[in-house]
Amino acid sequence: MLMIITLHYLDKGGILKDFTLKMGVSDNLAWIIEALCMVSVNIYVLISGYFLSTSRFKVGKVITLWAQVLFYSWLITLIFGIVTHGAFNLENGIYDWIILLMPVTGNHYWFATIYILLYLLFPFLNKGIETMEKKQFKNLLIVLTVIFSLWNSILPFTIPVTNGNGMDICWFVCLYMIAAYIRKYPEDFRLNKWAYLGVFVASGIVTFLLAKGILLADMFTGKLGGYARNFYPYNSILTLIGSVALFIFAKKCEINLPKALGKIILFASQGTFGVYLIHEHKLLRYLWPKWFSTAEFSGRPLFVIHMIGTVCVVFCVGILIDFVRRLIFTPFTKIKKTDKQNL
Question: Residue 131 sits in which domain range?
Answer without folding.
Answer: 42-253
